[in-house]
Amino acid sequence: LKNDHRAIPVQADRMLADLQTIRQFGACGNGVVRRAYSDLDIASRVWLARRMEEAGLEVSVDAMGNVFGIPPGDGPCLLLGSHTDTQPEGGWLDGVYGVIVALEVARASIEAGGPRIACVSFQDEEGSFTPSTGSRVWTGSLTQEVADTLVDDAGTPLAVARQKRGALPVAREVSPSLFSGFVEMHIEQGPVLDRTGEKIGVVDSIVGIRGQRVTFTGEQNHAGTTPMQMRRDAFQGMVRFVTVLNDRFKDVVGPTTVWTIGQANVHPNATSIVPGKVDFWVQWRDGDDALLDRMHEIIDASAADIAAEMQLTCEISSYSKIAPTLCFPAYIAAMSEAAEARAPGRWRVMPSGALHDAANVSVHMPMGMMFVPSINGISHNFDEDTAIPDLEIGLEVFAEAIARIAAG
Ligand code: GLV
Ligand code: MN
Ligand code: MN
Question: Which residues have CB under 8 Å from 164's CB, separation 6+?
Answer without folding.
Answer: 37, 42
